[in-house]
């Protein structure tokens, strides 16, 4: 007992403090490790895939081009007729065009086909033997 711990109440307090300080050094680290492990698992199960989906959506929206058939987040199907910095013009029916923000495009159904390259054909000369 430390000096000056003469009363019964002081002895009980020091006994409890001594028992708490000396016991469970490694045992008190286990709950902290479990919480840290829980955060690591949550990061790889929830946050990381969400970041990947967001990156893919941004790439898809930046690659929009006239002629692409798309679906908006509201379920509207249309064909991209013009692309601007922040908006996309969709033709939802013949002669009916509506303007949407790029993030409103949920997915691309069919990409516009690139115009076929001109093929140059020349008459092949027969091989001389």
Question: What attributes characterize this protein structure?
Answer:
single chain, 129 residues, alpha+beta, SH3 type barrels, 2 domains, 2 helices, 5 strands, 38% helix, elongated
Strand order of the largest sheet: 4-3-2-1-5
Q: Determine the structural class based on helices, strands and strand pairing.
A: alpha+beta
- Report how far the terminal alpha carbons are from each other: 113 Å
Shape: elongated
Strand content: 15-25%
How many domains in all?
Answer: 2
Helicity, as a percent range:
25-40%
Low-confidence stretches: none
Rg from alpha-carbon coordinates: 35 Å
> How can the largest sheet be summarized?
5 strands, antiparallel
Total of DSSP H or I helical runs spanning 4+ residues: 2
- Give helix and strand order, one letter per element, not per position: HHEEEEE
Number of strands: 5
Quick check: average pLDDT? 82
Subcellular location: Cell membrane
Protein name: Protein translocase subunit yajC
Transmembrane segments: 20-45
Family: Belongs to the YajC family.
């Amino acid at each position: 007992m430390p000096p000056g711990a003469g009363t019964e109440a002081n002895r009980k307090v020091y006994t409890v403090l001594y028992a708490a300080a000396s016991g469970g050094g490694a045992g008190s680290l286990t709950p902290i490790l479990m919480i840290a492990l829980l955060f690591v698992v949550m990061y790889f199960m929830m946050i990381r895939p969400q970041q990947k989906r967001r990156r893919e959506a941004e790439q898809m929206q930046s690659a929009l081009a006239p002629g692409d058939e798309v679906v908006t987040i509201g379920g509207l199907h249309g064909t991209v007729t013009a692309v601007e910095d922040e908006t996309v013009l969709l033709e939802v029916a013949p002669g009916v065009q509506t303007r949407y923000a790029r993030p409103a495009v949920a997915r691309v159904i069919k990409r516009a086909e690139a115009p076929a390259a001109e093929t140059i054909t020349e008459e092949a000369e027969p091989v001389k033997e």
